[in-house]
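Lay summary. Proteins are chains of building blocks that fold into shapes, and those shapes determine what they do. In this project we predict the shape from the chain. Here is one chain we studied, written as its sequence of building blocks.
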Amino acid sequence: MSIQESSLAIPTMQNLPAARPSEGRSYWFPAAALILAVNFCFLVFYVFVGYKKLFNADSAMKILLAREIIDSHHFFPPDWYYGNNDIVVVFGQLFAIPAMIFLPAGFTVHAISGLVTSILVLHSVWLATGLAPIGKTQRTLITASMAAGISGLLAENLYGQASYGTILYMSLYLIYCLVRLTRAQSTKHVVLWSVLLCVLITTEFWGNPQRALITIGMPFVTAALWSIYRPGDHRGGAGRASLLGMAASICAGIGGGTILYAVTFAHVNNAARDASSIKWLPYDAIVGNLAILGKEMLVIFGGQPPGDSELLSVIGLYGAVRMVVAILLVWLIVRAVATSARPDGEVRPLAIYGSVALLSVCFLQVATTIPNLAEPIASSRYLVPSLITMAIAALATPLDMRLRPIEFISVAVVLAGLLTSAYPTFVRSDPQSHMNLGLQQPRAIDFSGLARYLEDNGLAYGYATYWNAGPLSVLSDERVLVRQITLDGPLPTPMRFLSSDRWYLADAWKGETFLVLTQEEANKVDWKQLAALGLPVSRKLQFGNLGIFVFGENIAAKLPGWDIRFKQPVTFHANAGAPTQVGSLQERGDAKALVARTTAKGALFYGPYVSVARGTYRLTFDVEANGNPAAVARLDAASSPGGTILAQKDLTESHGPQQLLFSIEHTSTMEFRVWALGNGEVAFKSVTIQRAEP
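And here is the predicted shape, written in a compact code that computers can read:
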């Protein structure tokens, strides 16, 4: 039934009863616009005020990256470490950079970036709903529903941290350009929409071709093919010019984006996830994950019942309403997926795209180890873009009370529930979608208060673990800079993931530095070894359950492996923790040495697995080896993982320092190894690395 025919559908500009058009125009659409305006105000409050209490390290990344871009004068900073083979192209850092011309890299800049992202999300939703033959009132209500945030988890991922908000608006813009291209009636419009489509595809594949192929490439190509075919459509498919433009855009976008990725990736640093760790799950685990998948969808749509609340309390009753709304919306989405291939579907390209994307992500969710479903709420973020796309497709269907009363009532109930979710979501909800209609619980660490405390104690540069570092730097408006470290060994080491090499240079800061650690983290540190390196704790402060350990100088100047340029020599000694296959630790003169007996064969020393920047370096091994015409020991330098040998040297004897030169083209993790070859006793005392070029 056409949307223009008289029906009991949701009133819109097109389908209001003919007897009262002026009443419809003066009431329904302005009411919908007012709801959108109110929800948008709540959204602005969340981005600029409410989210400050929820701000985290992942949120801080875009601001820290924007600072690196400005300081390095490179859009892809050479010292920055990207993660998991992703290159950040279109993301919140784009909108933070202009704001940082006038403001420090603080929370206000983050809020401005989040606001721009939020506007783009809502604009893309408005355009996507316009692909369907529905009136402005229904389009406005759907956009207002998205502006309401729906749940704490959605608000975090779409508007707060905004990572998946970027994916969503790029996806919706892609589909909009595709549909406009297939409907283009002139050469000018064909060229325009083809170019825009090509730019969007190129940008997505520039970020990571493998990820883009799964999350955007396959869904988009499927939607494009279906738009061309249009089974049962007597109007025919797209015109020849549109087909050529579509094919050229897809091929040029995928090819161009992949080439740009390869060229860019060759000049940046990356901390990649080990692909070998991704595995298929056994059958029983897959079946169990199907139930978790249902929970994830409820959480995303705010339908998780509030735990420990009485059923007949205000919180309990509201939770019940939200659960009903979430279940109805999931049903509408399932129905939209099942009917997306029907030839009469008015939002067919959007539904096809969303269906393929949703089914692909769901398959990976339940059948592989890519997400960590031990934390289903956190892993549900992967579903956000495709699930919201399908929600839009489900709600943008033309409705008729007489022909499809169940669907009409379901959409009406869902819209009513979503439209009124702005206050609970933006004011009384957390990123796990817990509705806190009572007193909100304070977060574990008051980062703003901690930043002020550090500043009041004259501290401006320090180090902390990942989740505590970035928020302090941003929330203090850069007055206190805290860099991320790991505590995998007895000494703190830089965490080179979503971070910059220049943070850990000896000349990055002159003066006092500090470590912010929990008691558990502090117990992992070998404080005696730090003191032996010339880094005694000068004073200790306390903020809540966090210890603040202050040093009189920058610890990066004396901790081995921090400055990966090695302009100053750094020595790695044989000690009880040194890795070895065949050696034992013994006293040799005034030092300790790893000693391999005469017939031993294997690695006497390997490691230390330090990051080394591009350049040429000199290794000096302090090694002793008995004389033998056959080689007694072998020295080498190898990149890890993979063990590619960059330089090596065989020794028939040694009674002092032995040098080895090697060069690398990109920042690499390095091993400096000493091999006992079974032809004589070998003793290793230390290895020193220093840059060999000015």
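What the prediction tells us: Residues 21-48 form the longest helix (28 residues).
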